[in-house]
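Support case: flavin mononucleotide complex. Customer-provided input:
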Amino acid sequence: MTTILIQGSSRSNGDTRIVSDFLVKKYGWNFIDLAEKEIGHYDYEYKNSNDDFIKTAKEILEYDRLIFITPVYWYAMSGIMKVFFDRISDLIRIDKDTGRRFRGKQMAAISSCNSPDKYEGFFMPFKLSADYLGMTYLGDINVWIADENKSVSEEVNLLLDKFEKEQLTLS
Ligand SMILES: Cc1cc2nc3c(=O)[nH]c(=O)nc-3n(C[C@H](O)[C@H](O)[C@H](O)COP(=O)(O)O)c2cc1C
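Agent response - structure generated as follows:
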């Protein structure tokens, strides 16, 4: 089972990256930072089809398990991550062979913010997108980096362990 952690934060080295680095080190996952890519908004005339989207999608499709990690921005996923999901529409319309490669893969999602507060419905777009794409949705978790202590707390570490053991390792 190969795994890629896909980060969509507006800053490459912010709070979400602290969690990403922790996960990569702990579980040996591969990592991709969407903020380093040039990925334009969805366009009905596919004006952005020569940007980094298709090659980034192909890169993540090399893995069996795709884990999205996004900060909470305005009670929702980051804009960068939402644009990435919007652009999957390109694969359903103009590069169907690549689009079909999502089928049978696994998806999970992680939100990061500064408190344990959870927002109802936050993960719904991930779950429904997985269903639509024929992927197995493994589950999700909210983690937080407390403002005064820029590291993964023991409490969050234990939650991540439970998440990894109980939700991510179904197969
Ligand atoms: C534009 C923006 C919107 C935010 N909206 C929320 C929010 O709705 N709820 C919340 O708990 N935190 C919110 N936050 C705080 C971030 O989720 C939090 O600081 C997170 O750890 C930032 O991760 P980053 O450093 O990777 O961007 C927001 C931050 C920003 C910059």
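Helices lie at 15-27, 53-60, 79-93, 96-100, 124-133, 154-168.

Case will auto-close in a few days if no follow-up is received.
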